[in-house]
Amino acid sequence: MPRREPATARSTRCVVLFLLAGVAARAVFAVNDGLLPNGHFEQGPDKSQLNGTRVMGRDSIPNWEISGFVEYIESGQKQDDMILPVPEGERAVRLGNDATIRQQLSVTRHTYYSITFGAARTCAQAEKLNVSVTPEFGVLPIQTVYTSSGWDSYSWAFKAKHSTVWLSIHNPGHEDDPACGPLIDSVAIKALRPPHQIKYSMLRNGDFENGPYIFPNTPWGVLVPPILEDEHSPLPGWTIMSDTKVVKYVDAAHHAVPKGAGAVELVAGRECALVQEVSTEPQRSYRLSFSVGDAANGCEGYLAVDAYAARATLKVTYESHGTGGHKRAELVFEAVAEQTRVVFHSSNHHMKSDATLCGPIIDDISLVPVHAARRLRM
After folding, report:
1. CA 72, 95, 41, 214 torsion: positive or negative?
2. Which of 69, 102, 174, 308 is the right S-S partner for 96, CB 3.0 to 4.6 Å?
3. Residues of the chain with pLDDT > 90: what percent?
4. CA dihedral 196, 274, 340, 306 (to 10 degrees)
C-alpha cells in the first residue's frame, strides 16, 4: 500500500506552488500608457552576467528576456572611434547578430495598441528591426536618420488577439562584427482609441489628436511606418503609402502645431503619402480643408504640400522661416466614385541646417459636402 503524504507536507507543497504561480503571474505585466517595465533599461544585469558588454543570461536584464548577441551599453561608451550615445538615462541595449529582446504583456483583447521605441544605427550599413506581437510583425528600416543625435523614435501598431502577448524586437542582420547592430532605448506602449470623426467632418482623426506615444523628453517626434510594414497604423484612420519611407508625428509640447496637440510632418518628399479613403456620393461636390505650415524646428524655405481628391489637385506653398506658422487651404472636388481617396505628400525633399530631413506639417483636415460647408458659414 503506497505511503500517504503527510498533511503538513501537502500543505507546504501547496504554499510553494501558490507562491511560484504568483511569481509567474507577476512576470506578465498589465500595461498602461507609457514606458514598459524597465523600458529604459536602467536596471541592468549583475556584473557576473556580463562578458565585457555582452549579456550572457537569458533573464539577466530585469523584466526582459533576451536571445542572441545582446550588449548592455552605458552612455558615452566607445566602439573604435565612435561614441555610443544614450538619449534617455544612462543605459541602453544593442542588438547584435540575430538578437532579440522581448517582454510578456497583459493587454485587452481586440484593442489596438501602438509601440514606441528609440533606436540608433551603429556600424552596420542596412540596419532594420523586426517588431512583432504574435501573430503580427513588421520590418522597420532604420537606414535613414532623421535627427542630428542619430536617435529616432519609431512606432508600430497591433491589434491584440490574446489577453497575454509577447512583444519582441529582433535584429535579423548578420554582420562580420556581431556587435554591429542597432541600439535600443525607451520602449513604451499606448492604447489607441477607435478612429473618430471630428465635428462637421467626414474624415476620421483629421485633427491627429489620436496617435502614438511621444516621450516627454524627446523633441524629435515619432516616425510612423508605411502600411507595407504595419497594417494597423499608429495614426488611426490614416494610411502611410510608401515602400520604406515614413511620416513624422509631432506634438504641441515640442513643435508649432496649427491646432490641438498633434500634427504630421511630411519628411519624405514624394516618396511617402498620407492617405485616407472616405465614402462619397458620385457627382456630388465636397470641400477638403486643411492647414499647412512649419513645425518651428528650423525647416526653412518654400515648403509645399500636394493634395489630391478624386480628379482634383492642389499645391499649397508656405514660406517658412523655421519658427512656426501656418496657413489654411481648400480644395473643392466632385466625387466620381462611392469611395474617394484623400492624399497628401510633400512636393519636395527639405533639409535643416544640420543636414537632417524635414518638411511641411499638415493638420486640422476636414471634409464636408459643399452645401453643408455653406450652411456652416451662415
Report:
1. positive
2. 69
3. 71
4. 130
